[in-house]
Amino acid sequence: MFSEIIPHLMHGFSVAFTFQGLAMVTIGCIVGTLIGALPGLGPITAIAVMIPMLSNFEPAFGMILMAGIYYGAIFGGSTSSILINAPGVAGVVATAFDGYPMTKKGQSGKALCIAAISSFSGGTLSVIGLMLLAPVMAKFALLFGPPEYFSLMVFAMFAVTAFSEGSTIKGLISAILGLMAATIGIDLSTGYFRYSMGLAELQDGIKFLVVILGLFALTEVFTLSVKKEKSEKDADYKHKVTSLKITKKEGKMIVGPICRGSVIGFLIGVLPGAGATIASFMSYAAEKKINKDPETFGKGDPRGLAAPEAANNAACSGSFIPLLTLGIPGSGSTAVMLGALMAVGVTPSPQLMTNYPDLFWGTIASMYTGMIILLIINLPMIPYFARVLWIPKPLLLPSVVLFSLIGIYGVGFSVFDLFLLVLFGVFGMVMKYIGIPPAPLILAFIIGPLLENSFGQSLTISQGGLWIFWDTAISKTFLVLIGIVIIRVIWKMVYSDTEES
Amino acid sequence: MVMNREKITAIILAVISIVYIYGTYQMPRFEYVRLTPGRYYTYALGIAMLVLSFLMFIRNDIKSRKWETSPEKLKTIGVLTGILLAMLPIFQYLGIIVTFTIGSAAMSRYLGWRRWSTALVVFGVINITIFLLFTKVLGIYLPLGRLPDAILAMFIGEG
Asked: I want to staple B119 with a disulfide (CB 3.0 to 4.6 A). Which of A203, A216, B47, B105 is the partner?
């Protein structure tokens, strides 16, 4: 197995160690850490604002940059969780459980150091897992034809909505809205312009960057602009980064949680729909359960910080497996990456590894360098990076708007797109008000054309018969899994009704 | 029956799905195209949305709400949206740098930043940096704007 992987990995390093490869991973890690550290702005916004610049790079380097931003944002997200109890992304909420109490005890430096070591270890162990598992999955993916691909995409969408927080019905509504929005434009089977309302600007469909920046960046700007500042008491802890040194005893203490968190994180990250948030909560809960003194958790226990930090970074690398091997995103962030790849001409499919070895192995190899860069950024330089928390909201938020506006205009040179961006920003607020999650919409909007395409191809093969989706073992398995998810959803609905009554 | 935001949304979504299904029905049929998967696909989406909006109406799931609004919040969002919408029609004339610098400074001022001068300098620098990054480094053309172009032409001369 290793003899097969090593030549490919060496090829990956030859891509990752070029000047452009190293520059991309470094920029990605820095941008990701900075944006991830800002409360409210997560990896999706960070990746989205960089997308307009990707058209100038080869897909492999673009992917290295986006991957760097993604794990950089998860890495950096712990800073605001620990220092001001304001997680930048959902995946680092569990980090604050013990990270913030450590800050309150005057151990913010120690907490940041433990978070950095745990993130590095979790990320690196997970990249090894990714390297070993991805080729196996990629070989399996070669068995996929249009019906299997269609069933897999439907399964991924169901999984994302089933695992997303809040109401499953609202999650499904979000996904269907995304699929509907993706049908605007030309119908490939007939050449007819659908749902474009006679507007020439909509004949090519809605640009995915408009949807992402509208629903995430602009909505976050609106949300943060109306959010009340933390109280003065909380603000006292802000910006005080104490000594980063950890004792030998603490070092030994966190080894177990890091290893367990990494395994849990990786396994959960591979599943579509789960991801960093569930992984970090599960590893925190597991750690609390297996330890003899669970009462110390939540009061600044380093183990309670190490486990979720290792898990969320491991999940982050794990989530690249469905993306790189099957061409299917399992989360909002990986969906944005897939959309960006499509925009630069990469056709996502289960043959991604075979068709784009530079992209596949280059990204995996770059993750090793990325983890080291992140450790360097997050250990000696963290007191400086923590200063991004000082940026006043009135200067920060218009800057995000600026990046979004110029980014959108730079991609399409269309004022109509800018109006659409504002419309999606307001729509994102309406979704927030109703409680409809935006992540399924993004995922569905990006994979919508692929889904429709594989559906069309399947029906063409079967000459219009829907039985084709039940005809092969792989497709059948996914349909059974979709059935299980639906049963779970119904069970959840009935169960919550019983609880209410 | 009390109409809350879930029920109203469910009705709006049901209307959207009916319009969507009607849109699919309105698509022309081509004599020589025997199979139109796109039609089945969009019908399926419309029906799925109709079913989900019905489920949303009867489920009335208010627990999943994460955000509450207030007149103050609505005012802030309204003003920011207004500034954004005011910027867009004029930016082709005044150009990216001038329009977005003034617009961002106005947003900043509304969000509580008191000094116009600092805001204009900060956003001016950010704007010029992004403009140069796009045009000089990435090779992506961004219009300077008709007015700045005309002013430049006055000083430098055409061509």
From this structure: B105
